[in-house]
Amino acid sequence: MSDNKSNAVAYWKENVKYLSILLVIWFLVSYGCGILFKDALNEIRLGGFKLGFWFAQQGSIYVFVILIFVYVRIMNKLDKKYGYDE
User: Fold this and answer.
1) Residue 36 predicted with pLDDT over 80
2) What percent of the chain stands above pLDDT 90?
3) Is the pLDDT of residue 1 over 60?
4) Are 15 and 78 a contacting pair, CB within 8 Å?
5) What is the CA angle 20-36-44, rounded to 5?
6) What is the pLDDT of residues 10-27, one digit of tens each?
7) C-alpha distances out from residue 49 to 12, 34, 65, 66, 68, Å
8) How far is CA 47 from CA 3, 25, 41, 50, 55, in A?
9) pLDDT for residue 2
10) Which of 18, 32, 35, 51 is deepest in the core (most CB within 10 A)?
11) Angle at CA of residue 9, ends 6 and 10, nearest 5°
12) What's the CA gap between 50 and 64, in Å, rounded?
């Protein structure tokens, strides 16, 4: 029983670590690139649009979808590592 509990605690600790990292990336891309660093990014053009505008309108959505797939992949590996895969 103690081994199962320590296994579960380690699993959730690692899960929260990965989730925190992905949320920080999400925040930096959405708030940072779309709002805080917009002026610096607007010096660069992507497809005729300013990069800050592109991140605010399109780029952050692409990054969010990529983060979902990264999270799924990480969690599948984590589930196998701790024996929670089906």
Assistant:
1) yes
2) 43
3) no
4) yes
5) 110
6) 999 999 999 999 999 999
7) 42, 13, 21, 22, 26
8) 55, 24, 14, 8, 12
9) 62
10) 51
11) 85
12) 20
Contact 25, 67 (CB under 8 A): yes
Residue 5 has pLDDT above 90, yes or no: no
Looking up tokens 């709002």 gives: 35
Q: Are 56 and 34 in contact (CB under 8 A)?
A: yes
7, pLDDT greater than 80: yes
The two structure tokens encoding residue 39: 């002026």
Question: Torsion angle, CA of 42/44/47/52, rounded to 10 degrees?
Answer: -30
30: its two tokens: 């959405």
Written in H, E and C, the secondary structure of the chain is: CHHHHHHHHHHHHHHHHHHHHHHHHHHHHHHHHHHHCHHHHCCCEECCEEHHHHHHHHHHHHHHHHHHHHHHHHHHHHHHHHCCCC
What residue type is 36 in one-letter code?
L
